[in-house]
Design brief:
The protein is mainly alpha-helical and 927 residues long. It has 44 helices and 14 strands. It has 7 domains: 81 residues, no CATH class; 113 residues, 3-Layer(aba) Sandwich (Rossmann fold), CATH 3.40.50; 122 residues, no CATH class; 164 residues, no CATH class; 94 residues, no CATH class; 91 residues, no CATH class; 89 residues, no CATH class. Helix 30 packs across helix 31. The C terminus is likely disordered.
């Protein structure tokens, strides 16, 4: 709690150890006390942390008046400070400082809150000799330590191992809350086998220096926690569970303890916090509980589009900061508590804004110096000693007020205060702002401040990849909703600064992409003005590329998202298309395939390079990548219709592929090179693009798919009909594969299907359509080799009417028996009926090695159907001439049934005895 340490410094300018030594040396010591001053110093440290109060009530009672005297306190005041609300009742009660409306936890009578790992929360504490709890801030380390202390565990809070070892006993149970886990004393721990130790720290165990691999100068370089653990002590690693494992239980737990009247409501909290996207905001139960305390203070307020309004989010931050500033167990530097209460939310937002201006992630790990530099000087000015001296000389009437203003916390003090308040947490070599929800809320506020600010503010967001992507996505959404305000604002004046250049580049990029998705979203006049503004900013930066803007949003050589370098070429191609009937003078012909100017061979290569860049697309159907890709294919179709054929090499993304395939399939195009045809047949552009291409060319989708079916082979692992396997194809979905099978012509077969089925995971069997199984049956009947039915369970997904005829076929042995087993589980009545029919059939084939279809049906029957088959066998045996389909195998089956003790085995035995005239089983050994 640090109150005693601070008091010793204020009154005596001494550390707690020095204070203990002073009391001992100057005679302020009970006459009969055998305690050394070192041991007494440890008691003082425990008292400072709110621990071990029972000792002061018993053996340490004589020390209390002496300690009060040396600290210049009344004994009653010392008693009050020793027992704040959070440690009242001899430390048995634990109050929740960040959720003050919760009933305190009775450490002797209640268990720990949900979210603390079960291994830690055992009634006797962790069971393993060595337990390492990876516990980030808010995981409940202090609460767990207090709870275990009430169960006879010795609790130590230390910055690092050297400090911890000074207090570490050799035996017993120890809970060590460690700030820095580096340089674990492996040898020391191995020598103390009788010590049960639980370490709670944000990091994972690290190996001793001698055991690090060559080149690993720091344990932070060993990125895999399990590798670190293998080289150090034999720790049982305990992780703090994810929020999905405990959030709902924590809310219910809080609901049972909360004092009514605040803003907390369990049902609303469950609905708001248990959604997957919100669970990611909370790393630890302490963070979540503190947020519930904020809700109790500030309420939920209004929520918009699944998230809070900015004003409500700001209220939450202010409520959290007030709770943090008022915590009795944390002491911020002078002036910081007031600053956090009054200006903390604005301070954090301004720090996050400064981080964004520098391209720094305000939610990331930053050095202490960087955090200090982010503190706005207007809110935390450096100390001006000259001004203080002047005030001392002048002694104005409002001296106290002016002194408070002059002594406002400086940037270094602000950072110290943020650490003391639990806002900045050590993480490796730097610090991270937390909890996560507060960090993201603050970062969002900073982003909004810049996004709604001046042109230069918006340009600041476009300087760096992450913020540029977010802003561009917002602009694209607005333009598609016919709100082009951001685009129009970029055209107000000629850009002068880098930020203004980036705003224009971003506006040009988004207008082009919006036009690609919806041509009506960008009027021709707007596209012409964008081209006119952009042309002066174009430069030839690479000899084999067309000109590009002098500055690119997010930076150069980016490959994903709207900030990808190739996306600018996509936008330029789309805007050139929009203005093709009324082009802007000066558009480089290398960027405009509609330009009438003939190109030299060299410039044609440059144009091809730009068009290739424009044609590249992100894989998957994530927004807006899927819509941009469809727009590119539409534009490719327009180019093809206008006689402009793009010439890319094999394997390159070609925005004209869907239309080329449609023309091939419909007979509108004679032929293409074989390698290009194979590429088209893979449908890498996706089924939605093929549908649109069919509509553009007035061709039925079924016509094109039928043409493809006659050329597909399952021996091509990328073949579209096999994309049931996840991640098998970049753009086709399982639903697309079902569509392809539905459109398969009955006379189009699929060579290699039997082998390909072996590689399909079981998870896709339920979605395979009937036409798939029809082809599988066809291939099975036509094959003379082992189908390698490695997973017979697959048969249970094949329609019964397709499997039943296979019972009569001479298939491979494995399949012959697998099929009736599958059908017995699904349609036993049909098999019993078929057995009766086959018994009368004189044409049933009898294989001397593998019997007949009837014998396989009977021999694969589950035990519950044996009595029915025994009765049927009795009918067959009473009149063999009427049942020519039954062979000599029947007696063997009856014997097998009797010896297997299956249901009906006695009836089978009796039947065998009757048929053989009582001779079966006679003689020695028969019972």
């Amino acid at each position: 709690m640090a109150w005693l340490k601070q008091l010793a410094l204020d009154t005596k300018d001494l550390s707690l150890r020095a204070l203990a030594k002073l009391m001992h040396d100057e005679g302020q010591w009970p006459d009969d006390a055998s305690l050394s001053f070192e041991s007494f110093a440890n008691k003082l440290r425990d008292l400072d942390k709110g621990k071990g109060l029972g000792w002061w009530d018993r053996r340490g009672a004589p020390f209390r008046p002496l300690l009060a005297e040396v600290l210049k306190l009344e004994e009653s005041e010392l008693e009050r400070r020793m027992r704040p609300a959070s440690v009242a009742n001899d430390g048995a009660m634990y109050a929740f400082n960040m959720f003050t409306a919760l009933r305190p936890l009775h450490l002797d009578q209640e268990g720990l809150m949900p979210g603390i790992p079960g291994e830690i929360a055992r009634s006797g504490g962790p069971a393993a000799p060595r337990t390492w709890w990876v516990a980030p801030p808010g995981a409940g380390k202090t609460l767990a330590g207090r709870w275990l202390e009430r169960r006879s565990w010795h609790v130590i809070q230390a910055g690092g191992w050297p400090e911890a070892l000074r207090e570490m006993p050799s035996t017993g149970h120890v809970f060590l809350e460690l700030s820095d886990p580096a340089e674990e004393p492996t040898a020391w721990l191995k020598e103390r086998a009788e010590l049960r130790l639980c370490v709670a720290t944000p990091g994972s165990p690290s190996p001793p220096t001698s055991e690090r691999p060559p080149g690993a100068e720091s344990p932070l370089l060993l990125h895999e926690p399990h590798e670190r653990a293998e080289q150090a002590t034999d720790w049982r690693i305990v992780e703090t569970p994810p929020a999905s494992a405990w959030m709902e239980r924590l809310i219910d737990w809080a609901a049972q303890r909360v004092t009514p009247g605040g803003g907390f409501d369990a049902s609303t909290a469950r609905e708001g916090l248990c959604a997957p996207e919100n669970l990611e905001l909370f790393d630890t139960p302490g963070d979540a509980l503190a947020f519930l305390g904020v809700i109790d203070e500030a309420g939920w307020g209004s929520v918009n589009d699944g998230g809070p309004h900015q004003r409500q989010a700001s209220r939450w931050v202010r409520a959290w900061l007030k709770l943090a500033a008022d915590r009795s167990d944390r002491k911020a530097p002078p002036g910081m508590a007031a600053l956090l209460r009054k200006e903390g939310a604005d301070l954090l937002t301004e720090m996050a804004t400064a981080a964004l201006r520098q391209g720094v992630d305000p939610a990331g790990v930053l050095p202490a110096e960087t955090w200090t530099d982010l503190v706005p000087p207007e809110r935390a000015p450096p100390l001006d000693r000259d001004a203080l001296l002047q005030l001392a000389v002048q002694e104005p009437d409002d001296l106290a007020t002016k002194l408070r203003d002059a002594l406002r916390p400086d940037p270094e003090t602000v950072i110290q205060g943020l650490r003391a308040a639990g806002l900045l947490h050590a993480d490796g070599d730097g610090y991270r702002l937390g909890p996560r929800w507060l960090t993201l809320t603050t970062a969002d506020a900073a982003f909004e401040r810049l996004a709604k600010g001046s042109v230069d503010d918006r340009g600041t967001l476009l300087l760096y990849e992450s913020t540029a992507e977010r802003l561009l996505r917002r602009w694209l959404d607005e333009v598609l909703k016919r709100r082009p305000g951001a685009i129009e604002a970029a055209l107000c004046e000629a850009p002068q600064t880098p930020e203004q250049c980036l705003v224009l580049e971003g506006a040009f990029r988004i207008a082009g992409l919006a036009a690609l998705i919806d041509p009506e979203a960008v009027p021709v006049d707007l596209a012409r003005r964008l081209w006119a503004r952009m042309l002066p900013l174009l430069r030839r930066r690479w000899t084999n590329w067309p000109p590009v803007p002098v500055l690119l949003a997010g930076g150069q050589h980016l490959f994903k998202g709207l900030v990808a370098t190739h996306r600018w070429f996509t936008a330029a191609l789309a805007l050139a298309w929009i203005v093709r009937d009324n082009p802007v003078p000066g558009i480089p012909a290398t960027l405009d395939p509609w330009a009438p100017t003939p190109l030299s061979p060299e410039d044609q290569k440059i144009r091809d390079s730009g068009q290739l860049m424009a044609s590249r697309h992100d894989t998957g159907d994530t927004e807006p990548a899927g819509r941009i890709r469809l727009g590119l294919y539409r534009l490719g179709g327009v180019l093809l219709e206008e006689g402009i054929r793009l010439s890319f090499g094999p394997g390159e993304p070609d925005i004209q592929h869907p239309d080329l395939l449609v023309r091939l399939g419909a007979g509108l195009l004679e032929t293409l090179p074989e390698d290009r045809t194979r590429q088209l047949l893979r449908l890498e552009f996706g089924l939605p693009a093929l549908r649109e291409a069919c509509q553009r060319n007035d061709v039925e989708l079924s016509t094109v798919v039928a043409w493809c079916w006659r050329r597909w082979s399952a021996r091509d692992r990328w073949c579209p009909p096999l994309v049931f396997e996840p991640r098998r194809h970049p753009t086709l979905s399982v639903e697309d594969a079902v569509t392809l099978w539905t459109l398969r012509p009955s006379d189009a077969h699929f060579p290699g299907l039997l082998e390909a089925v072996r590689f399909l995971p079981a998870s896709v069997w339920p979605v395979l359509p009937r036409s798939f199984w029809q082809e599988w049956v066809y291939q099975l009947r036509a094959s003379t080799v082992d189908p390698h039915l490695q997973q017979p369970e697959m048969l249970s997904f094949i329609p019964e009417d397709l499997l039943l005829p296979l019972l009569l076929d001479e298939l491979h042995v494995e399949v012959r028996y697998a099929i009736p087993r599958s059908l017995w589980a699904r349609c036993p009545e049909r098999l019993l009926s078929l057995a009766e029919t086959l018994g009368r059939d004189p044409d049933v084939k009898q294989d001397p090695n593998h019997g007949s279809p009837l014998s396989r049906i009977v021999s694969t029957a589950p035990g519950e159907h044996t009595p029915e088959l025994v009765r049927l066998a009795e009918t067959w045996l009473e009149d063999p001439g009427a049942f020519p389909g039954v062979g000599s195998w029947l007696t063997h089956w009856l014997l097998h049934t009797a010896n297997g003790r299956a249901l009906g085995w006695r009836e089978a035995f009796a039947l065998v005895m009757r048929v053989d005239g009582g001779q079966v089983g006679a003689g020695p050994g028969t019972g």
